[in-house]
Amino acid sequence: MFYTVAWLACALCARPPALAHAFTYAQQLVQLEQANRAFEQAMSSPTPEAAQGYYQQAMAGYEQLVAAGIHNARLYYNLGNAYFRLNDLGRAILYYRRGLRLEPGNRQLQANLSYARSRRTDQIDVSSQRQPALFSQFFFWSDALSVPTQWTLALGGYSLAWGCALAHLVWRRASLRWCLAGAAFVCLVFASSTWLTQSQYTTRRAGVIVAEEVVVRKGNGESYTPQLPQPLHAGTEFVVLEERGSWLAIQLDNGTSGWIRRDSATLL
């Protein structure tokens, strides 16, 4: 369920020193070891009550690392797992999605996000959303290949296209022209799929309901009548349409819109 200390040690080394405002590098590693140890103890605890306490410790440790300025997909993955084990679907989904913003092709984050979504109370009908369906049809490999792999294939096609173009200047063969066209096509296709994959997670200002439940209203105030017959629950995702003081105008995946209190949700 979690990654090793060695991986995050590399990530900490790569992080700009200016961000290490809360812990030294050695303290960050100690904090990570303690959080991972707490998670392991929770997994092997004989009673649910004992496990909950250890998950709380792990969650607090990971949160302190995030507060110290460490932001990477695998830390968010660990944090999402800790919240999920604490039955906090809202924050679990929030951190899985934050991780996917940094690593859109991460299969473990995708799988855990999908499972967490299946466990939430509100199952919003997204049948009216055509763009994701079209994206999946034309770029069917996007879920199977990570973003770095897609970029590597795009760069490979780009390099091969230039190689064929230079070779064609010398030998003038039809086969080289076909090779050039094919390589250029590969470059264009994988560059496009990479850009679209990343844009799905980065272009829209989105958020997640983290309160146990929240009433969606027709305006930005408690005096407005409810927009929906039932409140929304933790884990429901939305796109922000407008912000006014302590209120957010949101739109759900099915196109329904309304206003919620800002403190009932967290933005990505």
Describe this structure in words.
The chain has three domains: 5-87; 133-202; 206-267, SH3 type barrels. Helix 2 (25-43) packs antiparallel against helix 3. The longest helix is centred in the last third of the chain and has 29 residues, at 174-202. It is an alpha+beta fold and 268 residues long. The protein has a five-stranded antiparallel beta sheet. The chain has a two-stranded antiparallel ribbon with strand order 2-3. It contains nine helices and seven strands. 56% of the residues lie in helices and 11% in strands.
- What's the number of helices? 9
Radius of gyration: 23 Å
How many strands, which pairing sense, and closed or not: the largest β-sheet? 5 strands, antiparallel
How many beta-strand runs? 7
List keywords for this structure.
268 residues, 3 domains, globular, two-stranded antiparallel ribbon, alpha+beta
Please write out the topology.
Elements: H1 5-14, H2 25-43, H3 48-67, H4 73-85, H5 89-102, H6 107-119, H7 131-138, H8 147-171, H9 174-202, E1 206-209, E2 213-214, E3 232-233, E4 237-244, E5 247-251, E6 257-261, E7 265-267
Antiparallel strand pairs: 1-4, 1-7, 2-3, 4-5, 5-6
Helix pairs in contact: 1-2, 2-3, 3-4, 4-5, 4-6, 5-6, 8-9
